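PROTEIN DATA CARD
Card holder: M23 family metallopeptidase
Chain length: 194
Origin: Kribbella sandramycini
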Amino acid sequence: MIRPALAAAAVLVALAPALPANAEPAPQSYMAERAAIQPKSADAVLARPLLRVPFSCGENWSGASRSGHSPSYYSLDFNWGSGRDDLGKPVKSSAAGTVVRSAYDAGGYGNYIEIAHGDGWRTLYAHLQNRAVAVNDRVTNSTQIGRVGDTGNVTGPHLHYEQIHNGAVVAAKFGTSTWATYPGPDTYARIRDC
Ligand SMILES: [Zn+2]
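Structure generated from the sequence above:
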């Protein structure tokens, strides 16, 4: 006699599609994977590289935080104009660095890019329309790395943005003194390194 739990497991195995011999199983969503990593209290205030607002100079972007935002409350969702006005707007690196991820995450980030800036600091840009840089590419503090899109788990175009220290999303800070507002939204604009 098969116990119910084993019977259920057997059904799940039976329903799982057989993978071709050479296929690798799909990785778990990178967004979901990182949601479990929480910042240490010191992470928010540590010296970090000078990180610019990730857009062209002269544009005012609304950056929103919200409770339940994945993978972290400290993530920001950026919009420009209204409706789908921001679709295709250039996205720029917040600082010089090296591209460590340029990939597609169907269940979360869609097209996303992660850039390492040294000392455990990274920035991540998600839901992009396209990815203009590849892993190991060097970027400057104003390289256009892609365009605002609506890929992945979204209801409309926007840029999902994270400042990361040692794997944890931390409260965002722009330039030398502009801390992001939590809870948002607030308005942000790049004023240097255009
Ligand atoms: Zn988001």
